[in-house]
Amino acid sequence: MTTTDTGAGMQKVVAALMSLLMVLLPFILGGAMVFAGLKLANKFYHKGEGKKWTILVRDGTMVKKGIGLSTWTLPGDQVITFPSQIHQVNFRAEQVTAEMQGVQVSGMLIWSVYRNEDGPFRCYKAFGEDLNLANPRVANEKLESMSISIVRDRIANLTINDILKNRSKLRNGVKDEMQKILTGWGMWLETCEIQDV
Questions:
Q1: Which of 111, 118, 89, 117 is nearest to 179 (CA)?
Q2: pTM of the full predicted structure?
Q3: Is there a single domain that holds both residue 110 and residue 168?
Q4: How does DSSP assign 65-77, residue by residue?
Q5: What is the pLDDT of residues 18-43, one digit of tens each?
Q6: Reduced to 3 states, what is the DSSP secondary structure of residue 186?
Q7: Which residues are paired to 196 by β-bridges?
Q8: Are the C-beta atoms of residues 170 and 95 closer than 8 Å to each other?
Q9: 52 and 38: one domain?
Q10: Rounded Cα–Cα distance for residues 186 and 84 (Å)
């Protein structure tokens, strides 16, 4: 075999490879563009977790909310997440009754994030990163102080007989009065129980 035959064979191989490359090049470029597009799109998709609130905020206004919410976002959007669990707050209040008799009342509150309207966003604005804790200290302390204050006010206007025999009157009064305030904070009072008098 001569060097001219080898050179001609090489030219045919190179020509075949160039032809193949020209055919495959659009597919290679298209695949690279699709991969880059998917990578970019992934930056604007938030996958929610089943036990967490997800809030989508655009220009300071809540756009979407939900537990486990997965959503597309736009550049500049903010995604806020925090646990959706319920919380328990124990309290103990001492006060004199209308008959000037000392009474000690202990009870508990169970609260969660208010699900309606923009409740989750209001709750986040009120308590921020505290909501990410297993036991949100700031929120629970505010609820404990408020419940003690309301229970003391109720006890001062009731008799011992009312307190001992009609705990539901005390409980319902506390729950109704607290819920008016808590709705503004984005909280929902699941229950208020008077455990001991």
A1: 111
A2: 0.74
A3: yes
A4: EEET--EE--TT-
A5: 887 788 878 888 888 888 877 877 78
A6: coil
A7: 106
A8: no
A9: no
A10: 13
